[in-house]
Amino acid sequence: MSIFITILGHVLTLLGAITGIFGETYDPKKKRKIKLTRLGWTAAIVASLGISLTIYKSVDDYLTSKVYEEIALKDIKTGWRQVASIFFLLEWEVKGEKSKVSINAIKNIRDSGMLAKFDQVNFKNKTKVIQYAEWNLGQLACKQTSMGMRIMESAVRANDERISRDIAEKVQKLRQSPVFGKLLAAGCGTTVERKPNYELFKGMFNTEEMKSYLSLLIELGNELGNPGKK
Length: 230
Prior knowledge:
Layout: H1 2-22, H2 38-95, H3 103-111, H4 114-118, H5 137-158, H6 165-176, H7 178-188, H8 208-224
Helix pairs in contact: 1-2, 2-5, 2-8, 3-8, 5-6, 5-7, 6-8
């Protein structure tokens, strides 16, 4: 239907133009101001219909593209929240209270000395979040990070022509960060059994490398607008 409307719009516009060129569309002897003949009126109407259909199709394509873009951005925001969630779970473990996921909260974690406290966390502890009760913090560091990244990368691949290059590049930079690999290696382990390697968590957080990782997360969040809001 979409391609039919496009073709029909162009055909009608072409017919109107051909009629205007080769037909008797203008009669200077007519007394009224608009001196079009019947053929002239027909050509004008046909051309107008063609132009209207072309405009309609252009607007429809634009709106459809925007809908898909919004869906893709929603998925990337969901992935962003999941990648960020491990830091809020750790903050909850340290402070005993839950913070709302947001860009400013990530900045606070990066700059307030909280990362040093994360290095003291026992990653064998179970999370305080009921829906994740079967997993400990070490396992969640892997699960949430890897799942969130899969969601973001999938959305970018499926909508590479609609997602801005800045967003796509920032997702890729986050994926290529050494910290991403370290969180997966520590939380999922490097063995066939995929068991956490808790030793790898020691000293991982209070580093410039981790601060750079959080800065990338913040930059991506800024591109997305307000990813903390569902």
